[in-house]
Give the backbone structure.
Amino acid sequence: MTDPQAQASSVPVITIDGPTASGKGTIASRVAQRLGWATLDSGALYRLTALGVLQEGVNAEDVAAVARVARELDVAFRGDVILLKGEDVTNRIRQEDIGNLASRVAVYPEVREALLQRQRDFRRPPGLVADGRDMGTVVFPDATLKIFLVAAVEARAERRYKQLKEKGFSVNLTDLLEDMRARDSRDANRASAPLVAAPDAITIDSSGLSIEQTVQAVLDHWSARLA
Ligand code: DC
């Protein structure tokens, strides 16, 4: 009988880790599109956990209860649409209150553990592009190519501001910048799986690059890896 785990580990993975609003999600989905691969938006799982915590009235300080929410998440990814218990929450989980709560619950090792196998299950042929904070360090340490995508916090706050405005949310750039700095610091300084580049990751600074240029930079590294 073939060992499903060994079979999965032969599937190539490109990981794209980086701080909030560095453009990871957009870059990951375009790279995946160009390669014909699947994507994993791991941040969505932490955001869904945060939304579950709110919906179920769970105390966010109660680690065991939050981990239970993470373990029991009833979620479906249908293309760009994300369903939680059958309800379309695609836009809801992008709101800043959920992002901030996601960053808080992501600190708990029990929550990270509860989401680990669910993330690894996304690894299916012909390949996977996974974006997050610990894709290259913890979830897919054997990934074929690891990218660490960074951008100046001001550039990221501007991008997020535009994104949220386009979605019709009312936002304030100064608040956004402050929240983003706090979230960066929490994600980078937590004890469990902090945001850090894997030793074998390639860092790309997208502050002065267009989306297409950044996608191309990742694909160039991928071609170089294959050669
Ligand atoms: O990438 P994002 O902004 O959607 O992620 C939301 C939060 O989830 C982020 O502040 C930290 C957490 N997260 C994490 O800890 N590990 C990941 N692999 C992805 C996200």
Q: What stands out?
A: The chain has a mean pLDDT of 93. The beta strands are 13-17, 38-41, 75-78, 81-84, 87-88, 128-132, 145-150, 202-205. DSSP finds ten helices and eight strands in the chain. The chain has one domain: 12-226.
